[in-house]
Every structure is written in C-alpha cells, then in structure tokens.
Structure of 23S rRNA (Uracil1939-C5)-methyltransferase:
Amino acid sequence: MKCDISKRCGSCQYINMDYHQQLVKKQEECQKLFPHLNVHSVEGMDHPYEYRNKVIVAFNQKYEYGLYEESSHKIVPTQKCLLHDEETHKILSKIQSLFRKYRMSIYDEKKNRGFMKHVLIRRAVSTNQTLVVLVATDGMFKGSKNFCQELVKACPTVKSIVLNVNKRQTSVVLSDNEKVLYGKGFIVDELCGLTFKISARSFYQINHEQCVKLYAKVKELLNSQKDEIILDTYCGIGTIGMSVADKCQEVIGVELNKDAYKDALNNAKMNHIDNVRFINDDATEFMIQMANKHQSVDSIIMDPPRAGSTKEFIHSVKVLQPKKVVYVSCDPTTQARDLKWFKEIGYQASDVYLYDMFPHTGHVECVVLLTKVHNG
Ligand SMILES: C[S@@+](CC[C@H](N)C(=O)[O-])C[C@H]1O[C@@H](n2cnc3c(N)ncnc32)[C@H](O)[C@@H]1O
C-alpha cells in the first residue's frame, strides 16, 4: 500500500520499506542492543495496516485535520492514514463537517487563542465501540448537545464523547480535567477472553491483534503455579495481570495513573476475578516499601513506559528475590540499560522475543524472561 503523505508526516519511518525487510531490520537493531542474548525473529502481522486503535489529530483554521509534520507543529492534512481503520476515518470526517457547520473556533497555538485543540479517537476493535475525546481550552462548549447528537446519529459506534479541558500551552495533549458530554465516559473492549473498560486517559495497547500474542508469551514465560503470588507492575487497566490470574494464587497490580487504576478495579469486578488487587502508587515506591517489609513474591511482571524502570526498583527486586521477572518493553534501549542493572543483582536473561506492535515505524515491543542465577 502506498502512503501519500509519508514525506511530510514522518510518523512511519519505514513505510516505504518492504514489510519483511522491516522485521529483519528491527531484529538486527535489537541484536545490536542485546549482543549476548538470543534475539528471536520479530513476530509480524499478516495485514500490517489499520492496526492503531488510537489516534490524536489537530485541526487548522481551514478545518483540515492531521498529525503534525516531523519535528514541527505544522499539520499535515490527512484524509487517510494507512494505520487507522475505516471507522476512524469516517468519524474524523464527520467531526470535520460538524466543526465547519458549527464554525468551531479552532485553537491557534501561536496566538494562544481559540477553543478546540485536538480530537482523540479510541476504538475498541472487538466490540466495535468508539470513544471520542474533544480537547479544548474551556469547559463551556456551547451547542455540545446538538453536536453530540449529530455525531452519534451519523456514527453509531460512538458510545461516549468526553470534553477534556486543557488550558496549558504544552505538548501534553490531555489534562486531568474532563467532562462527559455523552455516554458513560468509557468504552468496553474484549481481549484474551476478558472484558475491559477503557477510559480516556488510561493506557491501552494500541495493536489488539499483536497484544494477544504478546500477553500469551508473558503467560508462557511466567509458567506460574497455582500457589504463586505475582506482582504486575506498571499494570495499566490490569490487562496482563488479569490474563494470568487463572494460573496463580494472587496478582497484585501497581499503577500510577488514577484513572487506569480505577478502570483496573472495575475490570476485576466486571470479570468476576477475585484473586487480583490493585494499588495506586508509583511502582518504585511500592517496590521499596515491599522490600523494607521483607515481603516476598514468586514472579514480577514489569511493563514500564518508554523511559524504562529505575535502579531503585531493580535493587528492590534483589530483596524480594522472585524466581522470575518478565520484562515487557516498548523501548529496547532503556530495557537494555535496565538489564545491565539486573545483571548486577544476579538476574540474567537469555532470549529476547520481539512483537511488531507498530508496523511501518521504527518501534518494536520486546519481552525477556530474567531468572536468578546468583545472589548479586
Ligand atoms: C506501557 S504501559 C503498560 C500498561 C499495561 N501493562 C498494558 O499492557 O496495558 C505503562 C503503564 O505504566 C504506568 N506508569 C507510568 N509510570 C509509572 C510509575 N512510575 N509507576 C507505576 N506505573 C507507572 C502508565 O500509566 C501506564 O499505564
């Protein structure tokens, strides 16, 4: 497939490269980062398009919408992005026509004036539900009732519309201040045979098909026993922990984002899983506290954001002495750094498993199993 905007957009660095070549390149690059480990070939997709279940676009004063040009805040008008599904395009195009009809005031970054800043679309692909988040500079959206009615009528997959009020001039799109304009403020998706509630600010893996394969690998590597206690750190809305809960005694999930934590609590209830509990805390702080209390766990799952984990987190692992740590990462560079710290405390990996969560970009998802080889 050919992308018309690849030269200007810059989001998909590999879009003009043959897909198989992309997978080979990702594996080679990871092998350089993990020279002493067995880096497996990348698990790719049969149809590596339309996989992104989340998109954030900005509008310009002509009501054109799109992503920003590489390293700038100039919008690249995008009618079709190869990574988004048809429904996302249909909804964005309807929003565009409604913005025109209602003469929506579009935010002008240079003048720091105007109302509508961004539109975020999140799709639950298994249930075909859509959440629309309108990011604006003010909580007063005149005519919002008619706007929502028209949007939902034209696009019935839209189950909720949220207004996120972000007055700040920063590159962070969402603020903590939100108001539900239509529906319940969240959508529900099915993943690995479970049901998950996803709200606007919670993390959710963007590639559903690849996420199923990734979680299956985590479960396989954990290979837990019925009497084991598993810590799921950086747990988001509880997806990984809940998908392994049937094979162990207890899962304790730790998540910093309050909305994701609340979603996780609801998700456990919704799925009638009673051997999982969630803590709303910084993962490192939680680990330090556990280590200070000399508590023990059998396995730890960690899936930190791009920045990776911390030295303090890893030093607490030394005290907790789990048999296994399964480390999931969307940035192999920080993961490679963290594996060096793990080595210092006596935990070693041998294999790196790669999942192409982000086809046509330079990114890849990595999973490693660390086991204790000596006492550090
Ligand atoms: C890559 S996501 C993984 C989420 C989840 N494991 C999944 O597969 O959906 C990383 C998560 O870590 C959370 N997070 C970021 N910094 C954190 C911290 N210091 N302590 C705990 N959680 C944190 C984010 O809010 C996000 O939900």
About this structure: The mean pLDDT is 95. Residues 203-205, 234-236, 239-240, 254-257, 260, 282-283, 303-305, 330 surround S-adenosylmethionine (CB under 6 Å).
